[in-house]
Amino acid sequence: MSQAQRLVDTISTQYLLKKHQEDKIRTLYDLCQNLSVGGKIVELGSYHGMSTCALCLSSTTEVYAIDDYSNKFGWAGEEYKESDLTVFNMRTKALGARPILINKDANLARKSLNLPISLIFWDLGVRNRLTMDFKLWQDLIIKGGMFAVHDLPTGILGSNMLRYIIDVEKIYGWQFVKEYPANIRVFVKNG
Ligand SMILES: C[S@@+](CC[C@H](N)C(=O)[O-])C[C@H]1O[C@@H](n2cnc3c(N)ncnc32)[C@H](O)[C@@H]1O
Questions:
Q1: What pLDDT digit, counting tens, does each position of 32-65 carry?
Q2: Separation of 167 CA from ligand 1 center, angstroms?
Q3: Which atom number of ligand 1 is nearest to the Cα of residue 106?
Q4: What is the pLDDT of residues 68-100, one digit of tens each?
Q5: If one looks up domain 3-189 in CATH, what number appears?
Q6: Cα–Cα distance for residue pair 153/187, rounded to 1 Å
Q7: CA of 48 to the centre of ligand 1 (A)
Q8: What's the pTM value of the predicted model, to 2 decimals?
Q9: Quick one: which of 80, 26, 84 has its CA closest to 55?
Q10: In angstroms, what is the span from residue 65 Cα to ligand 1's centroid?
Q11: Which among 125, 50, 130, 121 has a CA at the least distance from the CA of 87?
C-alpha cells in the first residue's frame, strides 16, 4: 500500500471521506513530498481540519492553519459556522496533527505572519478574493515554493484565472505547473 493511501486510511478514521476528498488528501501528500527547503506551510481555510491533517501528517514542516471560524456561506452555498472550530480541534488532536492555528480573518493573519513559505494551500471556499490573496501572500513564498489553489472553475478557465492575474498584475517569476486531482491547481515561483 502506498504512503498516500495509508494517509487516506488514517484520516478516514476521523472523517467520512468522499472520493474527491481522498483525492485532495493524496494531492496534498504529493505536494508535501516536493517542498522546497526552508519554508513553512500555510493553509488558508481549514474548516474541520481534514486538509490540515493531511498537510501536518505528510511533512515535518510547521503548518499554519488560518481560519476565522465566523458564520458565513461559501461560493457553492455551503454554510460555515463558529462551531466548526470545535470539530477542527477535536479531529486534529485525535489524529495527532499539530497545526499552528491562526483563528483570524486571512487579511489580518497576513499582517501578523512574516515567514518564509514553501507551500500555500488556498482553500477559502470563496472565489472573489483569490487575486487579493495571491498578491498579499506571494512575496512570502520562497524560490521553488508553491501556491496551490483548490476549487477554481474546472479546466483551462480556472488555470487561466490565476495566469491572467499574474500577467495583468505583472507579478513575475510564477509559472503554472499542474492541475492535480481534486481540482487543485499548482503554481510555482521560479524567480
Ligand atoms: C472550503 S472550507 C476549507 C476546507 C478545508 N481546507 C478542508 O479541505 O478540509 C473554507 C474555510 O475557509 C474559511 N474562510 C472563508 N473566508 C475566510 C476569511 N476571509 N478568513 C479566514 N477564513 C475564511 C471558512 O470559515 C471555511 O472554514
A1: 999 999 999 999 999 999 999 999 999 999 999 9
A2: 27
A3: 20
A4: 999 999 888 899 999 999 999 999 999 999 999
A5: 3.40.50.150
A6: 16
A7: 9
A8: 0.95
A9: 26
A10: 10
A11: 50
